Amino acid sequence: MNISFSYLHFSCCIIVLLLLSSCASKRNLVYLSDISDTADYQSKITNITEPRIQSGDLLAITVSNIDPESSNLFNKGILPVTNISALPSNMSTADPSGYLVDKAGSITFPAIGKVQLAGLTLEEGVAKIRTDLSTYAKDPIVTIKLMNFKITVIGEVSKPGVFNISNGRVNVLEALGLAGDMTIYGRREDIWIMREENGSRSITHLDLTSKNTLQSPSFYLQQNDVLYIKPDKLKERQARTNTRTLSIVVAAATIVTVIISRLF
């Protein structure tokens, strides 16, 4: 009798667990799932956004022209980097230096002094410095590169972390690739991009199951963006109620077993 009761109790537990698991909603784990599996897809790229210089950016600025001596003047007196680990991994640390954009959005450049760069693209920054230098150098060639372009990926990914982007351009899918892709619990239909810009913080929602995301202004990330992958509802429920749910299942199965055993 005890053996049959135990067997019945075990069977009821299994049945209840299967019923609970069957209640879980089906999820779409495929990126851009509304693109046809058989037909090629093509669309014009119109949403590439150039990085804009922000306070806290570290800029590599070089000046050259036909007079090497005058060029050397502008390539000296730059601020040393105190945290070499913040540099991109593929950048040489033999000369770890750059111009730090201060809280007011400006840098101090040799000869011309304060230069306001915050809010400008790198190309616009080059044009501004070239114009300011025209008094001191003939036809100067100016280049600007972001030395500390980084993004952060957290949440339901295999390898969360901070990633340095050497070429200054990265989109959401590439960022997920750097983080080892989403886990099966990541909500592909609602990822967050957190951005601080012009003294304000914003959160943008993207649906990676839709091809419309490819044309979103937020598809290409900016420096210091944080990409947050939210857990799905099942993972949230598991985290909150794992122990409690198991206790309820066992109690329910026990009650069902007692009722069945008395009936039969």
Automatic annotation (TrEMBL):
A single MF term (Gene Ontology): porin activity
Membrane topology according to the record: Multi-pass membrane protein
Record-annotated membrane-spanning stretches: 245-263
This protein's UniProt keywords: Cell outer membrane, Ion transport, Lipoprotein, Membrane, Palmitate, Polysaccharide transport, Porin, Signal, Sugar transport, Transmembrane, Transmembrane beta strand, Transmembrane helix, Transport
Pfam family, one: Poly_export
Subcellular location: Cell outer membrane
Domain named SLBB: residues: 150-229
GO biological process annotation, one example: monoatomic ion transport
GO CC annotations, alphabetized: cell outer membrane; pore complex
InterPro entries: Poly_export (IPR049712), Poly_export_N (IPR003715), SLBB_dom (IPR054765)
The Polysaccharide export protein N-terminal domain, residue ranges: 50-146
Gene3D superfamilies, per the entry: wza like domain
PANTHER family per UniProt: POLYSACCHARIDE EXPORT PROTEIN GFCE-RELATED (PTHR33619)
Protein family: Belongs to the BexD/CtrA/VexA family.
The protein, known as: Sugar transporter
Taxonomic lineage: Bacteria, Pseudomonadati, Bacteroidota, Sphingobacteriia, Sphingobacteriales
